Amino acid sequence: MKTGVVILPIYSGSEALARWRAAEEGGFDTAWTYDHLSWRTFRDRPWFGTVPTLAAAAVATSRVRLGTLVSSPNFRHPVTFAKEVMTLDDLSGGRMTLGIGAGGTGFDAATLGREPWAPRERQDRFEEFLDLMDRLLTAPATTYRGTYYSAVEARMIPGCVQTPRVPFAVAATGPRGMRLAARLGQDWVTFGDPKRLTGQTGAQYTADIAEQVHRLEDACIAQGRDPKELGRVLLNGSTDERALDSVDAFVDYAGRNAAAGITEIAVHLPVPGTVFGTDEQVFERIVADGLPQVRDL
After folding, report:
1. Element (H, E) at 282
2. Which residues, including other chains, have CB under 8 Å from residue 198's CB and lie 6 or more apart?
3. Is 253 helix (H, G, I), strand (E, B) or coil?
4. Residue 33 in 3-state DSSP?
5. What pLDDT, in 10s, does the model give residues 11-32?
6. Separation CA 195–CA 111 (nearest Å)
7. Does residue 106 carry a pLDDT above 90?
8. Burial bucket for residue 137 (CB in 10 Å: 0-12, 13-18, 19+)
9. Cis before residue 46, ω within 30 degrees of 0?
10. Measured CA angle at 186 (ends 77, 275), to 5 deg
11. pTM of this prediction?
12. Which of 16, 67, 188, 290 could form a disulfide with 11 if both were Cys (CB 3.0 to 4.6 A apart)?
């Protein structure tokens, strides 16, 4: 079992760099950040750009894998974003993972002055976006004309450090997204069943995860792919489970979901006074005592 930490892009200067270094020194395998222009209750609080944040993190660290959790087509274009992802892979020495999903209807969907896409169009765009990202990041030059996106002799030189490209961690809970993860992903990301995020026991949440993993495996088999090739990342914090209340709670949470087929647990760095207001001393004990136990699962 791997462990990851989500560091929101809310810290400036030396404070941000110290938190990314601390994630590496604490033993986390991955350190992620959100890719939004603003987010929910943080809308009127400091919120910095994701790509510059990861660029700084890349030069401040040397081991931990870095990534977005997750990016979306809501305000990005494949050609410009692929160039940025390629650059992040270079700066990090091949430690970049692109976490990516279809996006939703929040601030990102409307801030450019258009109406949010309907669910079907959002998924259609996501599939075309990721197909083009795959082409861009694996070829020195790409020409493509699709329904929503185009590229004309788009150059990606020198290309990614990782081969054949930066790995994709595809966030998906529905059948189309699962098929896309099975086809193009190296990892799959879930936060639980979006229809049942509250009011269940820990065992019930884990049963939902196990059912999602089963559907993912079916999608892989349908693609002629070994399901074991895909990592399975569970982002904690969307359900009302209290996984960060203690070391024992964290280890139990990780163990239950490891049994369900999850290979990485990602938790949020505490942000006092917010939805991520985990007790910082408890979090430090989880890092010191819980991560080593989880690693052996």
Report:
1. helix 280-285
2. 239, 240
3. helix
4. strand
5. 999 999 999 999 999 999 999 9
6. 26
7. no
8. buried
9. no
10. 70
11. 0.97
12. 16
